Amino acid sequence: MTAPISNNEREYLQALESELCRAKEELARLASQQGEAAESLRAAEEFKSRLVACSRDCIKVLDLEGRLLFMNEGGMQVLEICDIGPFLHNSWIDFWEGGDRDAARTAVQTARGEGVGRFVGYFEPLVRWETPRLCRGGSKSLTIPAVCFSFPNASCRHAAWSSWF
């Protein structure tokens, strides 16, 4: 046979039960907020992805060593690239020649150091001018794309440069 529960013990158990109910309600509220935040983040990421994908600017993502990790469709069209595969994970800096290569390297180093790297480069056979703007992403991890750049449509840039010379 069990001993009867005293009034103090009963009050203590009721207080614990009440506290447990409040904790359950708080956990449910937090879980709901977390779900809403996750959905908001997913929607924001989808918006950014669509924005990059449909841009007619050439947008590339490099790692901190200057290797190409990504190029959007607009960039592939501007550069007349059908398959980006052979270019991925290769040095974007080595794409350039002469003084443009040095300028590209300097721009990547500047961006890697949390600055904004800029230069004007020319490449053939497409007779295109590039004026990329490189900037460091928020992460310092080498596993996350950390340097990105874009430039206005190269054909338009070439037309502007041609009028100056």
Task: Describe, in plain words, how this protein is organized in 3D.
The chain has 165 residues and is an alpha+beta fold. It has two domains: 1-54; 56-164, Beta-Lactamase (2-Layer Sandwich), CATH 3.30.450.20. Helices cover 48% and strands 16% of the residues. It has four helices and seven strands; from the N terminus they run H-E-E-H-H-E-E-E-E-E-H. The protein has helices spanning 7-54, 73-78, 98-112, 154-164; strands at residues 58-62, 68-71, 116-118, 121-123, 128-130, 133-136, 147-151. The strands form two sheets. It has a five-stranded antiparallel beta sheet. Strands 4-5 form a two-stranded antiparallel sheet. Strand 1 (58-62) and strand 2 form a beta hairpin. The longest helix has 48 residues, at 7-54. The chain starts with 6 loop residues before the first helix and ends with a helix.
